UniProtKB/TrEMBL annotation:
SUPFAM superfamilies: Dihydrofolate reductase-like (SSF53597). It holds the Pfam family RibD_C. GO terms for molecular function: 5-amino-6-(5-phosphoribosylamino)uracil reductase activity. This is Dihydrofolate reductase. Gene3D superfamilies: Dihydrofolate Reductase, subunit A. Residues 3-167 form the Bacterial bifunctional deaminase-reductase C-terminal domain. One of its GO terms (biological process) is riboflavin biosynthetic process.
């Protein structure tokens, strides 16, 4: 069965964005490593579908660049109805039942982009198979958590750890 993989970056204190949703700290000059993509391109080869909460979609859409995943099937979860939009399909169904069905379909692996609300619901429903989390050596102090409030306690297996010269540490967890 195709796997659901959370591939995401977080601060040391477990935030994925500032309280206003910004992720400028990820692109900070201090962390620039010429030619390093932290496995992003090879990961992209393995997936054909993405999953996003609507808050994450709004951040992606607001970035000053063309939509970054035009060749993927992109599902955006929302509780309200939206007019059709380029590159994405809005899903008003419960993410848990939707992803259960999606995993049964033929296809490559599925990238859970985030954010924290979607991560929490899919993790609690045991629908996440792997997490590749790149920890940025930074304490934000406040922000949007990697897993929203309500996430269940869970023990994880660490499959791999990669360290980068800029201090990024990428941990691959199997669930
Ligand atoms: N650091 C990184 O690598 C990274 C990666 C991804 C995201 N992020 C950040 O994460 C932040 C967003 O995270 P978040 O936790 O606030 O929100 P989120 O999980 O991205 O999206 C939450 C939204 O998803 C929809 N939703 C949630 N549960 C649902 C359900 N059961 N049924 C239908 N729709 C549902 C709702 O949309 P409606 O309000 O439309 O109903 C809800 O407001 C952004 O700032 C983004 O930049 C960072």
């Amino acid at each position: 069965m195709r796997q659901v993989i959370l591939y995401i970056a977080a601060s040391l204190d477990g935030y994925i964005a500032r309280p206003d949703g910004s992720i400028d700290w990820l692109e900070d000059e201090t962390y620039r490593l010429e030619g390093e993509d932290y496995g992003y391109n090879s990961f992209q080869q393995a997936i054909d579908t993405t999953l996003m909460g609507n808050s994450t979609y709004k951040v992606v859409k607001g970035m000053e660049m063309p939509f970054p995943y035009p060749d993927k099937t992109n599902y955006v979860f929302t509780r309200s109805s939206h007019p059709e939009a380029a590159f994405v399909k809005f899903v008003q169904e419960d993410p848990v039942s939707f992803v259960k069905q999606l995993k049964k379909q033929e296809g490559k692996d599925i990238w859970l982009i985030g954010g924290g609300q979607l991560n929490m619901q899919l993790l609690n429903a045991r629908l996440v198979d792997e997490m590749i989390i790149t920890f940025v050596p930074l304490i934000l102090g406040r922000g949007i958590p990697l897993f929203a409030s309500g996430v269940s306690e869970k023990m994880l297996k660490v499959q791999d750890v990669a360290t980068y010269r800029n201090g990024f540490v990428q941990v691959k967890f199997k669930l």
